[in-house]
Amino acid sequence: MDEFLKKLYKYEIRIRKAVNSQMRGNFHSIFKGSGLEFSDLRTYQYGDDVRAIDWNVSSKGHGTFVKIFREEKDQTVFFVVDVSASQEIGTSERSKLDTTKEVCGVLTMSAIREASHVGLYCFSNQKEKYIKPSSSMKHGYQLIMNLYKLQPESVKTDLAGALLFALNVLKRKSVVILISDFIDTNYEHNLKALARKHDLVVVHMYDRRETALPRLGIIPVYDTESRQTVWINTSSSAFREQQRQTFRESQQQLERLCRQYNANYVALDAQEDYVPRLIELFRVRQQK
Predict the structure, then answer these.
(1) 82 and 101 assigned to the same domain
(2) pTM over 0.70
(3) Could you read off the pLDDT tens digit of each residue along the chain, which spans 288 residues?
(4) CATH number where 201 lies
(5) What is the spatial distance between Cα 99 and Cα 273, in angstroms, rounded to a whole number?
(6) How many domains are contained in the chain?
(7) Looking at the domain assignment, is residue 29 inside a domain?
């Protein structure tokens, strides 16, 4: 656990230094989302932004009214983390789940330092761990420790159910960081709803073996979620191209969906240094 925390601290410092030195503003803005919440209404005045007009109220015929917003002081950062069996894909030294835990830990440390309330929901096809948002440094380290030690009970995935849980539990607009390999179906509707209601960041975790298996001939492959073994010809050019195409299409579809609903998207290879990709993600978020 100590080595894990040392690694997280080192990566978090790298990200913080890069964000503060390479970009205008500072790290504080990354986890603040819009920073605004609805407060009141007032009569429209010349020069007001027309986008702030409340058309429902104005249509009643008593004048034109605009919404007044106030700065939201207590931002919540909520992690929704996939810990299903498909996340175990990788090398004996490093799986997608290992990298997922690191990324979540690094971002938790960063969010806690900015006085954000941080919460966690780990899922398979059931609730594996839920930690209510809180803002102390002690809470942050307890969250990281719980994530590090977590041993999922189920092997299956229910991404739609996890997104619905987040929608139900988060009453105020929050920064939601969703980390998953997205090997599931029929979750798009709930993803759209979450992106509309919250400031959504999608971290798509994958392993290069999912797009480029080594040429090993005909081998048995065990599906950890269905618990079935199938035989595949890893040397077949048609199979290899189909595998790459399937991954490419699902990735592009997810990225388009995020772009359409103004959610941030980043794809991370579990075997590579993810810090530069996170720095780029934060650069994009500061420009929002």
Answers:
(1) yes
(2) yes
(3) 888 989 998 998 888 888 777 655 556 566 765 555 556 787 877 767 777 788 888 888 788 988 776 555 568 999 999 999 999 988 888 999 999 999 999 999 988 888 789 999 999 999 999 999 998 889 999 999 999 999 999 999 999 999 999 999 999 889 999 999 999 999 999 999 999 999 999 999 999 877 776 676 676 666 666 677 877 776 777 777 777 887 889 899 999 999 999 999 999 999 999 999 999 998 888 766
(4) 3.40.50.410
(5) 10
(6) 2
(7) no
286 and 19 Cβ atoms separated by less than 8 Å: yes
- The residue range of the domain holding 63 is 36-71
Whether 209 maps to a domain, the answer reads: yes
- Same-domain check for residues 263 and 280: yes
